[in-house]
Amino acid sequence: LTAMGEPSMDPSISAADSQEDSLFSMMDVFLISLITGLFTYWFFFRKKKEEVPDLPKMQSVAAPVRDSSFIEKMKKTGRNIVVFYGSQTGTAEEFANRLSKDAHRYGLRGMAADPEEYDLSDLSRLSEIDKSLAVFCMATYGEGDPTDNAQDFYDWLQEADADLSGLRFAVFGLGNKTYEHFNAMGKYVDKRLEELGAQRIFELGLGDDDGNLEEDFITWREQFWPAVCEHFGVEATGEESSIRQYELVVHTDANMNKVYTGEMGRLKSYENQKPPFDAKNPFLAQVTENRKLNEGGERHLMHLELDISNSKIRYESGDHVAVYPANDSSLVNQIGEILGTDLDTVMSLNNLDEESNKKHPFPCPTSYRTALTYYLDITNPPRTNVLYELAQYATDSGEQERLRKMASSAAEGKALYLSWVVEARRNILAILQDMPSLRPPIDHLCELLPRLQARYYSIASSSKVHPNSIHICAVTVEYETKTGRLNKGVATNWLKNKVPAQNGSSSLVPMYVRKSQFRLPFKPSTPVIMIGPGTGIAPFIGFIQERAWLKQQGKEVGETVLYYGCRREHEDYLYREELARFQKEGVLTQLNVAFSRDQAEKVYVQHLLKKNKENVWKLVNEGMAHIYVCGDARNMARDVQNTFYEIVSEFGNMSQPQAVDYVKKLMTKGRYSLDVWS
């Protein structure tokens, strides 16, 4: 524009020269105004243009280039071990914290890190730090998938062509042997880092949650550290010692408007709801229906409907709904009484490491009551590190020794922990009750207990039919332990008591939706075989609703086959009327139900599959049907899969290994999907 301004001045000057002896005409006034305006515009614009080269400098000051660099953070804080965690339920994060705390015993300094918060391409620079090591505690989620917070890291590993030849690493995987892709994420990270040139300094650890994950971790850890010592030429500096990570601050005159009352992220987010809704910002959904599904029996099976109107939450059939439950108030009160604490004391636990990204173990400031109700897991048996830290507070030497023994890596200690804590299902309250001399400060207990996690349920509705509500099908968990105590499932008993009401928190459920790969075929004409006994029927109610809706839209809908199972026909046959209606309307083309206890010999869904094996093979082989399995991973899903191996082997004229390969290929192509739990 500066260049444009200059030529426009020349004609105006010549016009003024030609009339220098005459009075200003209107044209002169106009031209002089134009000159002044253009000159002013040019002057200010030129000034702005001169400032442009300085802008990049200003930006570099405001936003450091390495804002997400764990290398810079490690250098700044004198750390040489970084422990990354891929965690969905908090266990991998807990293990990462324990490993990073261990480091000080060997004259090293560790930090636990969420891969979501850092640029992992910096791994190639870790060798800049002396005696540096990267450890990865990686959980596997769903069907061999990375956890939400490790998704970006996983994507980077797949695409990376980085040279990691200077990187030293070790991996501990957290998985469950009942799942098809046992520890897939841990195995992949271990293999891929080696492919990129990194040096493994200790073998891959494979933790199995179906067995004893805690023992697997301890066994790996007690061999891991000697390998680290040998590699770096360092020695243990002493016994494991109790080091507090947080300091207690009690707020005597707290402004209650600034105190957390159960929110997961933003303060007052439950009073002032703002989308988008996710794990850190759940939506408070009203329960509009809560009915018992079963007609008899000891169990309580229920159907709940959550209102998501005006939330902008979208879901698909097959997705999961996550709900944040609250602990039973009677358990919370008993912990307060045993520890002689005023639970309504408002406090904060502040991280002693000022450089840490995690300022508090849970939202602070808050009250002990809120922390124990909404933020901390008080119902699961505590892990050995919690017992070790608590031991110092037992005034009886026998109790103190017992706690230390259970936290040790000795075979006798592991056996005692397994029998007295794990198998007896002793939670923290039971341990405090059974060890009268153990009375820890409540703030240290709150620091040690893991976070209370969201619970996931397969959505039992279709958004095509129910765009403003999400349906849940669940069974309340309740059992007697070996010590004679009655243990209740946190979430299911909390949901059971959610009564539909016009208003009030008694009917509100903090929730969000987690996307799933469990999807109906793209073409409605593709046949589907659904296998879901018990509450495993949940996603299939959504699938059938959607197929019915597609049929109403005039679409050609393929065969829709359901294999369902329950204990007794007149006791726990879930959604009986709905299924009968769908069958009558011709949407559900086959309804096969196994009643396991209505006759002398138990009959399960896999028996019905074998009975109809010819039809099953025809649908799979000729109809290109998609197979879906939902429910128990430990027995049902494995038995169903073995049945498919038999059917494929028999009708496809294949050997057992060929049949296994055939089914595995169906999985790879997305034609055999699992939504299972153990």
Would you give an account of this structure?
With 678 residues, the chain is an alpha/beta fold. The protein folds into four domains: 70-232, 3-Layer(aba) Sandwich (Rossmann fold); 272-325 and 454-516, Elongation Factor Tu (Ef-tu), domain 3, CATH 2.40.30; 327-453, NADPH-cytochrome p450 Reductase, Chain A, domain 3 (Up-down Bundle); 528-676, Nucleotide-binding domain of ferredoxin-NADP reductase (FNR) module (Rossmann fold, 3-Layer(aba) Sandwich), CATH 3.40.50.80. The protein is 37% helix and 18% strand. It is built from 23 helices and 23 strands. The strands form five sheets. Strands 1, 2, 3, 4, 5, 6 and 7 form a seven-stranded mixed sheet that branches. Helix 18 (538-552) links the parallel strand 19 (528-531) and strand 20 (560-566). Helix 13 (397-406) packs across helix 14 and helix 20 packs parallel to helix 22 (633-651). The protein is globular. The termini are far apart. The model is unreliable at 1-27 and 41-66 (pLDDT under 50).
Task: Write the topology of this structure.
Elements: H1 2-5, H2 9-17, H3 26-51, H4 55-62, H5 70-77, E1 81-86, H6 91-102, E2 110-113, E3 133-141, E4 145-146, H7 151-159, E5 168-175, H8 184-195, E6 199-200, E7 205-208, H9 213-232, E8 246-250, E9 283-292, E10 301-307, E11 320-323, H10 329-338, E12 346-351, E13 366-367, H11 368-375, H12 384-391, H13 397-406, H14 411-423, H15 428-434, H16 442-448, E14 455-458, E15 469-475, E16 478-480, E17 486-488, H17 490-496, E18 508-514, E19 528-531, H18 538-552, E20 560-566, H19 576-584, E21 590-595, H20 605-611, H21 613-621, E22 626-632, H22 633-651, H23 656-668, E23 672-677
Parallel strand pairs: 1-2, 1-3, 3-5, 5-6, 5-7, 19-20, 19-22, 20-21, 22-23
Antiparallel strand pairs: 3-4, 8-12, 9-10, 9-18, 10-15, 11-14, 11-18, 12-13, 16-17
Helix pairs in contact: 2-3, 12-13, 13-14, 20-22, 22-23
